[in-house]
Amino acid sequence: MRPVQLILIVLLLLVNYVYFSRLRSGLFDRLIILCLAALGIVMTVVPDFTTKIANLVGVGRGVDLFFYLAILGLAFMWLLLYSKIRDLQTSITSLTRALAIKKADAPDDPEDANPE
Hints:
Layout: H1 3-22, H2 27-45, H3 47-57, H4 62-103, H5 110-113
Helix pairs in contact: 1-2, 2-3, 3-4
């Protein structure tokens, strides 16, 4: 085993440890992370495996296939984060409006309330 392979495996295991110890997530998310970690370890230990898979789908090298998939994954994550931010902005706007209406003072002069 080459030193870079050992370093990559240690980093993958460290990322998984941090994810499982610090972040709360559902069962489906945890299964995805475990599958990605296992795939990462397999790709690190047996690099020719990715080249064979890449050749099957018409890509020259395994590294190229990895980068194509990584770019697609990052674009998907960007869209998910963007939609969550939009939802949070909408929720904050609704809460701010409700709080402003609740805290609004009633007019002092009854004539100001019904201008005709």
